[in-house]
Structure formats: structure tokens, C-alpha cells
Design a protein that fits this description.
The chain is mainly alpha-helical. The chain has 13 helices and no strands.
Length: about 375
């Protein structure tokens, strides 16, 4: 008599028991980010040249960095496509469909680039993007799924709010981390280093410095409360918040050292920013013990207040001036700075919308 073995098919995992289209929102967000990166600066437009198809089939301006970037950028698209489709059939077929989606999406982006003078469309980009989508989809192939993806899914299910609310919150956290890749954008501030609003802590007005520290502190505390609303319980909220802030700090440190001009590599952090960050964490520590609905409401208020104070003292440099802060020989700099800057600007609004919808829905009311 043989005993039943637990299934390792991705379609039969707890996270696979999804309402139809649960992950389509995350897939759409990923596609929008990739579309922005692929089509920036969008204008001016032109009709493709007569030899556009011949040039598309040639290998031009191809570097190892571009190939690696194309592959890495499309890995999330392939993985999210599997998550969105895996209830529709056997996982082998779903993996193939996800790779085809990556190929089709990349082909459309490259075709649209033919109409943008500052973009170079070529078949090598489609190939590397498709490879990235396939790698992302293969995260759900049985050997990889059993060893890596399934434990990560179990961790997500154990720690984070179930269903679409948790997925949307994780998408917002991911967008925030992407914005932190830009070392010219300080933590939880409006503006950029080197702008008119970037005050020297040893020379600036005391009132402005106090407002700057207050904005950072409010935003940090609001961020922690937002993170706590994503978790199943408040017990790990401080650890999760500190972990995310630490990851972002390391991203800033590494990208500042490798991308900014040497004399600017330490400008993304100063004494006022450290004080604001520490104060926000100290305020968050007792607040994380409140009921979930109260934490959600406070997160709304603090994120809004932090963003408003930041706008008072912050100032964004023109895009041309922002690009001049970097020493980056690999290309795609304008796209990178533009994408991360707009994510940095719009992120508080996206979080406000999420928290308002979450609060109005009544989820977590009277639940810690």
C-alpha cells in the first residue's frame, strides 16, 4: 500500500489556489515599468526609415552590459506571467506561454522604438529579453521550484497579508526599492542632491533643517506603518522595516560609489537625514503595537504629512542637471534617472491610494 506523496507541481501549491487573474495587476505594473524604460523619451516621433527592417536585423551598438540588463529586466515579467497563468493548465505549458508573452511584449516594444529617433531597435534586444522571460518562467520548473520558489512562496504566505492586498503591497515595496537605486535621490525627500533645496547641514537655516528632518522622520515612520499593514501580524514589523531600509541604504551606497561623480558620492546622506531616519524609527517602535486599522490610518496621515513637508523644503533639479551628477559610461542613463525620479515622486501618492482603499475596505479592523 503506497502512501500519497505531497505534490510539487506549482499549480497545486497553496499560493496557486488563486482567484482568476489575481497576479494580473502585478504583471501589468511590471509591463508598464518596462514600457516606460523601453520607450522613453517617447517624443519626438518619426516614421521608420526605409532601411529600418534591415537595421533591425543587424547587431549594432551591442555591449555585454546591455545584454545583461535586457535579460535581468525581463525575468520578473516571465515569473509574473507564470503566476498570472498557472491556473490555466499544466505548468510546462504555462512556462512556454510566459516565454511567448515575453517575446511578444519585447517585439512590440522594439517595433515601437522604430518610431522614436533616440532609441535603437534591434533583434538582439528581443532575443535577450525573451531569454530573461524564459529564465523568470523557469523559476517554476520543478527542480528550481522545489528548491527556491516554493520556499519563497511559503514565506510570503506565512508573513504577508493573503490575496491581492498583499500582492499590491509587495508591488509597491518593489517600486520603492527600484527608486532607491538612484543615488541622486535622498531617502524620503522631494528633490535631488545638488539642487537648490539640498541644504548643507552646517550652513543651512535651522528652520529648514528642522523641517527636512521632520519630513524624513514622518515619512520613515509612515513607511514602517505601511509595511506593518502588509504583514499578517505586528510581531515582525520592526524587523521587516529595518531590513528594507538596510537593503535600500546598501543600494544607495553601492550605486553612489559606482555611478555618481567622486565628489558627490557621499552627498545622498548627511547628519540631518540620519537624525530624521533614526527619529522616524524610534516613533514607529511603539506605534507598531496598535490595532491594524489604527496603524493603517496613521500610515496614511504620516505618509501624506511627510510628502508635504518634503515638498516644502525639497527641489528637483532639471533632468539635464540631474544627469550631470553621474559618471556612467554604459548608456541608458537618461532612462534610468527619469524612471527612478518619477517613481520617487509618485510613490507616496500610490501608497496613499493603497492605504485609503485598504482602510475603507475594513480589512484588519479590530485585528492586530
Amino acid at each position: 500500500m503506497s502512501s500519497a506523496q505531497p505534490s510539487t507541481d506549482p499549480a497545486s501549491s497553496p499560493s496557486a489556489e488563486l482567484s482568476p487573474g489575481r497576479h494580473r495587476g502585478s504583471l501589468l505594473v511590471c509591463a508598464l515599468v518596462l514600457a516606460y524604460a523601453s520607450l522613453y523619451p517617447f517624443v519626438p516621433l518619426r516614421l521608420p526609415a526605409a532601411d529600418a527592417v534591415a537595421l533591425f536585423l543587424q547587431l549594432r551598438y551591442l555591449t555585454g552590459f546591455d545584454i545583461a540588463l535586457n535579460v535581468v529586466a525581463y525575468v520578473p515579467l516571465g515569473a509574473l506571467a507564470v503566476l498570472a497563468l498557472r491556473a490555466s493548465g499544466a505548468y510546462r505549458h504555462v512556462i512556454a506561454k510566459a516565454a511567448v508573452i515575453g517575446f511578444g511584449f519585447s517585439a512590440v516594444m522594439e517595433a515601437l522604438q522604430l518610431f522614436i529617433p533616440f532609441r535603437v531597435a534591434q533583434v538582439a534586444d528581443v532575443a535577450s529579453n525573451t531569454l530573461g522571460s524564459l529564465i523568470g518562467a523557469l523559476l517554476f520548473a520543478r527542480p528550481v521550484y522545489e528548491r527556491i520558489t516554493r520556499p519563497l512562496e511559503a514565506l510570503r504566505d506565512r508573513l504577508v497579508e493573503p490575496g491581492p492586498w498583499g500582492d499590491a503591497g509587495l508591488a509597491l515595496v518593489t517600486l520603492w526599492l527600484i527608486a532607491q537605486l538612484n543615488p541622486a535621490l535622498p531617502f524620503f525627500e522631494a528633490g535631488s542632491i545638488g539642487s537648490a533645496g539640498d541644504t548643507d547641514p552646517f550652513e543651512g537655516d535651522v528652520v529648514i533643517l528642522a523641517l527636512q528632518a521632520m519630513a524624513i522622520g514622518l515619512s520613515t515612520c509612515g513607511f514602517g506603518l505601511f509595511v506593518s499593514s502588509l504583514l499578517r501580524g505586528p510581531d515582525g514589523a520592526l524587523r521587516a522595516t529595518v531590513a528594507l531600509l538596510s537593503i535600500a541604504l546598501w543600494l544607495k551606497f553601492v550605486t553612489a560609489a559606482t555611478m555618481l561623480k567622486p565628489q558627490l558620492s557621499a552627498d545622498w546622506v548627511n547628519e540631518v537625514r540620519v537624525i530624521g531616519l533614526a527619529a522616524g524609527l524610534l516613533i514607529f517602535i511603539p506605534l507598531r503595537e496598535l490595532q491594524r486599522s489604527t496603524r493603517t490610518y496613521l500610515a496614511m496621515m504620516l505618509v501624506l504629512a511627510g510628502a508635504l513637508f518634503a515638498r516644502i523644503v525639497g527641489d528637483y533639479s532639471p533632468m539635464d542637471d540631474l544627469v550631470r551628477l553621474f559618471r556612467w559610461p554604459h548608456g541608458q542613463l537618461s532612462t534610468f534617472t527619469s524612471l527612478t525620479r518619477y517613481l520617487h515622486e509618485v510613490w507616496p501618492l500610490l501608497v496613499m491610494g493603497y492605504l485609503i482603499a485598504y482602510f475603507v475596505s475594513g480589512r484588519g479592523r479590530d485585528v492586530r
